[in-house]
Design brief:
By secondary structure, this protein is an alpha/beta fold. It has 2 domains: 138 residues, Aspartate/ornithine carbamoyltransferase (Rossmann fold, 3-Layer(aba) Sandwich), CATH 3.40.50; 155 residues, Rossmann fold. Helix content is 43%, strand content 15%. It has a 5-stranded parallel β-sheet with strand order 7-6-5-8-9. It is globular, with a radius of gyration of 19 Å.
Length: 301
């Protein structure tokens, strides 16, 4: 591994190794207290954040490293000076770059022009750190993740893309249920189907939520991405049939509910489900730090 730009770039062994290392770091944090001793990580954020910023900052500190946060008060990366100059300059001082950007091309440009590892902390196409935390969470509940049946219900966004890649590489079965016009990107679907065939996984796409059955966990996300100006009334009219509620959970036999947060109760999912006994949302949030620490240790050790 030179970077973590997308889960699709990982082999099955690399993905499994990251999950195993994350479990070790979580169980024995003292063993990794100096893993990043003398290392500095710059975080470039174009978008606001709670979990990503805090989990990286505190996680780097727990590994003995130093974190520097840079927001973009002057707008997106590349406006004040070229992204290539950002990357080459930061590479003079920092040991790694963590970037949360609007465009995935910005992440790619940082990796192309920098000389240090780049970690994608979210872009318009992918959210690999979230998916790593999600599969870490599932691996804590299921001994063999390849046997897991995971359903994603809602908008086929960057989180869905990363989950699809992860499930395919791990050999799991993933069902993606979206309203017409909101399916994952065609090129992602094509890639995932090839990976699923290679690793023994399965991808099922449908807009008919009534056909979904026999799931271990249901995952959903907000129906409208940050910065989208579509009126909420218009979004709700299209997405409300895809709300995750106790009736849907019972119908498909799903024991667990997952959400990357922030969650809007009584919108994409009911409060009963979000705050219910089978909700894994806080496990996922905590595991962001452990999964990301595994990535940092792998890239910088």
């Amino acid at each position: 591994m030179k970077h973590l730009l997308s889960i699709k770039e990982l082999s099955q062994s690399q993905l499994l190794d990251l999950l195993a290392l994350a479990k070790k770091i979580k169980a024995n944090p003292a063993d990794y207290r100096r893993a990043l001793d003398g290392k500095s990580v710059v975080m470039l954020f174009e978008k606001p954040s709670l979990r990503t910023r805090v989990s990286f900052d505190i996680g780097i500190n727990k590994l003995g490293g130093h974190c520097l946060y840079l927001d973009q008060q002057n707008g997106a990366l590349g406006k004040r000076e070229p992204v290539s100059d950002f990357a080459s300059n930061l590479s003079c001082w920092a040991d790694a770059i963590v970037a949360r950007t609007y465009l995935h091309s910005t992440i790619e440009e940082l990796a192309e022009h920098g000389t240090v590892p780049v970690i994608n902390a979210l872009s318009d196409l992918y959210h690999p750190c979230q998916a790593l935390a999600d599969f870490l969470t599932l691996s804590e509940k299921f001994e063999d993740v390849s046997k897991v049946k995971l359903a994603y219900v809602g908008d086929g966004n960057n989180v869905a893309h990363s989950l699809m890649y992860g499930a395919a590489i791990l050999g799991a079965t993933m069902t993606v249920v979206c309203p017409e016009g909101h399916f994952p990107a065609d090129e992602v679907v094509a890639d995932v189907k090839q990976l699923a065939e290679q690793y023994g996984g399965q991808l099922i796409l449908t807009s008919d939520i009534d056909t979904m059955d026999n799931q271990d966990a249901i995952y959903t996300d907000t129906w409208i991405s940050m910065g989208d100006k579509t009126p909420m009334a218009e979004i709700e009219a299209k997405f409300m049939p895809y709300q995750v509620n106790s009736q849907l959970m019972a119908k498909v036999g799903a024991k667990y509910f997952m959400h990357c947060l922030p969650a809007y109760r009584e919108v994409e999912a009911t409060a009963e489900v979000i705050d219910g006994e089978g909700s894994l949302i806080l496990d996922q949030a905590e595991n962001r730090m452990h999964a990301q620490n595994a990535v940092l240790v792998t890239l910088l050790s």
